Amino acid sequence: MLTSTLGWWAVFAISALLALPGLVTTPLLLIRGEHGRSSRLDVPGALIVTAGLTLLVYGLGAKGEMPLPDFVLPAAGVLLLLTLMPVERRARDPLLPPVLLRSRSAVTGNLLMLLLGAVWVATFFFLPLYQQKVLGYSPLEAGLTQVPLAAALMAASWGAGRLRGTLLPGLLVLATGLVWLARLPVDGAFLTDLLGPSVLIGAGLGLAFVALTALGIAEVEPRHAGIAGGLINTSRQVGGALGLAILSPLANPAVGRAAPGPAALAYGYRRALVAAALIALLAAAGTGIHLMRGRSRATATPSAHPGNSPLADQG
Fold first, then answer.
1. Which of 166, 168, 110 minimizes the C-alpha distance to 287?
2. Which residue has better confidence, 294 or 30?
């Protein structure tokens, strides 16, 4: 609605306004650390993470648009992020406690969330482009046709919080929905070509998001649970940015063409969605490996393995 009436800038303006209360109140509500002492803001860690991720994501997304070779900015971002752990080991209140990286479930959960984030953002980016540029939907119509997807996502998220073992089924359902959606005919219709795969995609995302969040905090001490939750959300956002930077060239049929037609656009979006489905299957394979290793470790030391908690079994 905002895009159709005020323009694209309104979305960012509203987001900035909603962020202002948090920006103002966060310094006033900083929670005291252990033993009642005040926590110190980890400025070096925050600067390294922000600058490193910015260089990495921007460098991948701006290929061919900079005077520098394409690899320079991503490589600089990776090198900067590699300096984070030595800095965090010396910090009084580290932004990313090194102990989190020693948790198998936390590392696995974040790696898989990177992949899921790539699929999530790609779907919500290419689907409305197809609807508007190929099918001729308005921004409002494209938004309304995604309501079933959102409803399925919310329902599956609610169910995943009450079930166990939802990660692998969720990723497989997600991949199935993406393969179905990747048909993307030039003359597609909502009821026959979009509704079914949208519901599957929403259900798969809901099941997988909840299970991965649980996996990311399963073996973390309660005092680090908030940081672990923030890390899993960061992985989702970074995975989305990286995934979009990597998949966008697949969806761009305009190379060498002044104005690609609907058929060329649909072909590009199909390629991107097929690649997204492959990423979902890669995450499913990683989940299977994690489950098999977890079962073998639990069989070897069933009483001592920390992953025997119900949260760890969410995987």
1. 168
2. 294
Which residue ranges make up each domain of the chain?
41-96, 100-315
Question: Of the candidates 182, 185, 160, which has an alpha carbon nearest to the alpha carbon of residue 170?
Answer: 160
In 10 A of CB 147, how many CB atoms? 11
* CA 52/CA 95 separation, integer angstroms: 14
What the block records as the tokens of 270 is 């199909």
Per-residue pLDDT tens over the stretch 104-118: 899 999 999 999 999
User: Whole-model pTM?
Assistant: 0.85
165-168: Cβ within 8 A, 24+ apart: 165/313, 165/314, 165/315, 166/207, 166/208, 166/210, 166/211, 166/314, 167/112, 167/207, 167/208, 167/211, 167/212, 167/215, 167/287, 167/314, 167/315, 168/284, 168/287, 168/288, 168/291, 168/315
Fold of 100-315: Growth Hormone; Chain: A; (1.20.1250)
pLDDT digits (tens, 9 = 90+) for 199-233: 999 999 999 999 999 999 988 888 888 889 999 99
pLDDT of amino acid 254? 53
